[in-house]
Design brief:
This protein is mainly α and 98 residues long. The chain is built from 5 helices and no strands. Helices cover 48% and strands 0% of the residues.
Length: 98
C-alpha cells in the first residue's frame, strides 16, 4: 500500500487535521456503540474520513474498521448526524488483481 501511495501525485493528497467537529463525531460513535472507547484511535480514522466527506476509507483493520457490523454502525451514526455514507473497502478491493 505504501508503494501505491507513493505513486499518488502530491496535489491529490490532503492531510486532514483533527477538529472539534471530528472529536464530537467520534464521541457519537462511542456513545452509540459503533466502537468502544478503548478503540478511539480507530474511531478517529473513520470519523476524519467522514467529516472530510471522502469517497472511501481504505483499511486492513478488519477488527475495528473493515467489519460489516461496524461499517453499518458507523454509517447509522453518520446518517443520524447528517453525514453521507462512508464506504470502507480493503486495499485489495480497491486495487483489484494488481
Amino acid at each position: 500500500m505504501r508503494t501505491a501511495l507513493g505513486k499518488v501525485p502530491g496535489e491529490h493528497i490532503e492531510v486532514i487535521a483533527l477538529s472539534w467537529e471530528a472529536e464530537d463525531h467520534a464521541s457519537a460513535y462511542i456513545a452509540d456503540g459503533a466502537i468502544g472507547a478503548a478503540m478511539s484511535a480507530d474511531a478517529l480514522h473513520v470519523v476524519l474520513a467522514t467529516v472530510a466527506r471522502v469517497d472511501f476509507l481504505v483499511s486492513w483493520n478488519f477488527k475495528h474498521i473493515v467489519n460489516l457490523k461496524r461499517i453499518h454502525a458507523y454509517n447509522a451514526v453518520n446518517l443520524k448526524r447528517g453525514y453521507p455514507l462512508l464506504e470502507i473497502p480493503t486495499p485489495r478491493e480497491v486495487a483489484g488483481n494488481e
